[in-house]
Specification:
heterodimer, A: mainly alpha, Cytochrome Bc1 Complex, Chain C, Cytochrome Bc1 Complex, Chain D, domain 2, 2 domains, 15 helices, B: alpha+beta, Rieske Iron-sulfur Protein, four-stranded antiparallel beta sheet, three-stranded antiparallel beta sheet
Amino acid sequence: MEFLKWIVSVSAIACLLFLGLVILSGWGLSGAYVPSLTDGFPATLYLEKYSSGGHLLRSLHYYSSSGLVFSGFIFLSFFYISGFTAKYRKTWILCVLLYLLIMGSAFSGYLLPMDQNAYWGTKVRLSIVETVPLVGPAIADLLRGGATFNSATLPRFFTLHGSVLATTICLCLFLLIQSKKSIFIQYLSDQRFNVTLLVSIILYFFLINNFSAPLELPADPADVEYNPRPEWYFLWLFQFGKYVEWAPWIQSGVLPLLGVGFLFAVPWLRNHAQKRRSVIVIAWSLIWLVLTALAVIDDKGLHRNPNYSEGMALDAEKNFNRLCIDCHGPGGLGDGPESLAFDLPTPNFTASNFWINTDEQRMIIIVRDGKGIDMPDFGESLTYEQILALIIHIKKSFKPNYKE
Amino acid sequence: MTRRKFLQVWQIAIGMIVTFISAPAIYFWRTDRSGANEIDDRWIDAGRVEDLPIDQWRKEMLLFQRQDRWASFERKEVIYIYRNDQDITVFSAICPHAACLIRKNDEGFGCPCHKSSFASDGNVLTGPSPRSLDRLDTKVQDGRLYVKYEKFRSGTNAKEVIG
């Protein structure tokens, strides 16, 4: 019993902490984010790559939300096992509601970076929403602001994520605190516990700074090669959908209704033995694990979707072969067939004295604006990011003793 | 009036007020839909008919401008074209099941998301797709192929135009 109390309490505190981190880092991120089909990705890229604290904020937001989903699950499971649910009905209902709202935030926040993963994942999940009996298409259209992705989609998802759901979550939290069941956070009055907590928060900050929130190439609605997959905590539902393909409403209607109905009914169910409750939780966790594992195994043969820098590197290689190779040559020696007609020699990228006189910044300007009569300007056809990737590609392929 | 009773009445009142004040916002979200200002100019030029290879599937990208509310967008859509001596078949690359993009394979087409597969005539071979591939209307004018690009609701048996 002591152990149950302890884990309920600790997971509740973890949830509160993660929730606080998610909300505060979200405020930070919205300082430079623009919810728009065209500007959503550039704004995210700016946050990740060029702003001073955006990288840390994105990591915090991303990993804390995953942590929130995980610790919320632990909290609800052990709250249920502990059997306090009949005694604290209102608290349980509010906690379940909070968890559902958090899931909704995860759903709506997924689209905001507007990279490939965001676009395709949301698209597929909205098409699952569309299969909800009766109300599905209406809900999906309401979220999108139309029957397909359009200029109101991002503003709507952003408003839901950062305002509607966030406000409702705060309201629920307020009611939860009002219901004065502070036994869940009783450890906060313990000095030793507080010190441990503080140290772990500081460690978490340092740790998280070394990880990056995923970012892929900007969304391309015409990319036939992309393999859309949902976030890890929705993988089980995705996998489950494969087994009931003949009746998609089971995945989108019956199953969620049963699950949510069960959660809300828990305090009024006949209170069977604690052992039975543990078995239910373990069984569910096992089903979850098996379905998730099956989803991962099913995807083993598929190529991994490239992240942003990998994708840009592939793009740069293509651009080099398309735009540069005719003059600069396949080996970067400056011996391409076109270069024979030039009066001035084409630079040799493999010579170390070339790199002594030329730095990255100078090369960017040359590619963008051109040089002399022979080097054309690519400022119109390539974006800044593409030029940057092209120069990294050239350095990597040809510069002697190149180190990252 | 007891305190309990007062609280109940108060809660109902709050609920009603919230419903009323949120009604305009919900009404707006419900009725403001894309496509309202769209000019119905859907025949998209897909290039010269002569350039299409005979008896061969070809993946083609349609580029066109569409107006949506205040913004004008460059849209990029994928289609599959097949030409034989009599006529031209055009399929939208959007899978009718969950709107992923289908790929050409040996037996016809396949979808990477839920493994639906289609024969070359568009009919479903295996998988969850509720209907065959969406055929797009075409017309030939002055030796050029025009495609009426439309999107259809995914996951339904009927072909409902949505944009």
